Automatic annotation (TrEMBL):
The keyword RNA-binding does not apply. Keywords: Acyltransferase, Calcium, Lipid biosynthesis, Lipid metabolism, Membrane, Phospholipid biosynthesis, Phospholipid metabolism, Transferase, Transmembrane, Transmembrane helix. This is Lysophospholipid acyltransferase LPEAT2. It comes from Capsicum baccatum. GO terms for cellular component: membrane. It is found in: Membrane.
Amino acid sequence: MSDHSVFAPLLPSDHVRHSCSSDGDDNAREPHVILTVDELSTGGDTTNVSEVDDNPYAFIGANRFDMPGSTTVDPFRNNTPKIQGLYEWLKIVVCLPIALLRLVLFGLSLMVGYVATRIALQGWKDRNNPMPKWRSRLMYLTRFSSRTILFSFGYQWIRRKGKPAPRAIAPIVVSNHVSYIDPIFFFYELFPTIVASESHDSMPFVGTIIRAMQVIYVNRFSPTSRKHAVNEIKRKASCDQFPRVLLFPEGTTTNGRSIISFQLGAFIPGYPIQPVIVRYPHVHFDQSWGNVSLAMLMFRMFTQFHNFMEVEYLPVITPHENRKESASRFAQRTGHAVASALNVVQTSHSYGDVLLLSKALEANQENPSLYLVEMAGLEAAFHLSSLEAVDFLDVFLSMNPDSRGQVEMHDFLKVLRLKPCNLSEKMFGFIDVQNSGKITFKQFLVGSAHILKQPLFHQACESAFTACDSDGKNYILEQEFGDSLMLSIPGSSNNEIHGLFNLFDADGDGKISRDDFIVCLRRYPLLIALFSPCLLRQIFP
């Protein structure tokens, strides 16, 4: 098998020697065809050789990239995060006495439900099997308490359309997720087994109640945990003694004006699924749990005359067994059905976008929505995790983006500790696909991921470290680092070399270990371009 490494020659040396020999071997006289290449073609697009020369990452096989399409939709924005208008203020003043009564009712209902749940759970140790019937009957008191909690929040009546399918027909239910009201309603209506984050177990009152629902915990960042959760979904959905399983496949709350990408946990088992849609019609108060605190959302609910809620049960969707439908295709069909019933669009946003939005809010960005990138699409294209994307956003925010979320070249170079030069301009130009002189976070993220996920990237990092570590002592001193840097950026001052050295020397011990080197390049993959000259020098000493 041919060697596809960075240093592999295009023509093996033994073949060259044989072709140049003058003996009588027929193989030695095998004619060679010499081609003159004017253009390089990739996927129907042509790239001039001059453009290749301007690509500082061609040496690891990274061609210039096309930006994925973007949408201006922000599926997480609450449209009424603040109290606005005279009518709303007057309504709050009028409803304050009612709000106090509702608060008392909420507290009493929560306490009654909590006590009933503790009694139902007392002494029950075999949590892997279905809850005994007498314990389930005690939970009716908690279910009644959840309805009074909904009443205290202003949901005196809830409009329903359609009916839940029998559990034997659809053992799994999926719903869009708009507010913390959704799970309270479904607890009262269906008393299902739910899939929830592990962090919910430690929440006061809530953790106890969801344990009675025989919750399936999942850590969304752990592949092992996700696999275990899928197995539990399949096990409990296949047994009629368990309640039906409820999932919110979006994995987070939205504002209800769009559907974001579905996680596959509900669809991998391959059981029939009943989609349910939840709406919160409103004029003055958006009840979605977006960029608003829980305390403010509860206060606004308490101070409304009535909060509207509509629940619609859609027809059951069955996987195409004869076509051996994949889980992703099953999820797409279900998502399309939910989006069509809601009359909204479905985007490629995911929980990863929520993490990016939270990071931008923490950094006090003027318009955090500018940092939404539709992570589900990027995860599929680059196998990029949400946590990696958050790390890249941390780097981008250190570049001091303006109010439009854009970064100029001098701020880009400042964070990467580079001086303006031919190579650094090419690095910025590689990201600046629109040649606007500024880059957005999505351009920075896609460009960095494009480099990071190249098959030769890791090997290039290892080879660059070896090339800089001239005497094989397994660490790089500042003098060696500077010598290698001079090949790519001639004329660098001692201060410039020292600044870049400190970027790699994460632990500040005066030397760059192999781990320091690899970790830095994974955090700043664009810097791999600095080491292309020393890599080429290893090939052609």
